[in-house]
Amino acid sequence: MTLKLELKQVDLDTNLEQKDLDVLVDKMLNNIGSIDPELRDTLIFNTFGKLILEDFLTDKQLEHTLKVCLDKLFWGIKEMESDFVFTRSFSA
Prior knowledge:
This protein is mainly α. It has helices spanning 3-12, 18-30, 37-53, 59-72, 84-91.
């Protein structure tokens, strides 16, 4: 199943398993700067919002997410024309 399909399913699912969330969160973090606007802007961004606001994530998962996002804030900062701007923006 592609990440897009997984994220579309999360929007409908209210019975998410923690072990599945660990894998899903890592996939989302690995694609947070995707050049695909639907994946990045709609699916990943909104799914993180749902998972955080509806208390699906544990403290450990939230800390992991924060650490990964902080690590990505300066990716490609010196590159003039790169897609890393999406990674930095959405990590912030």
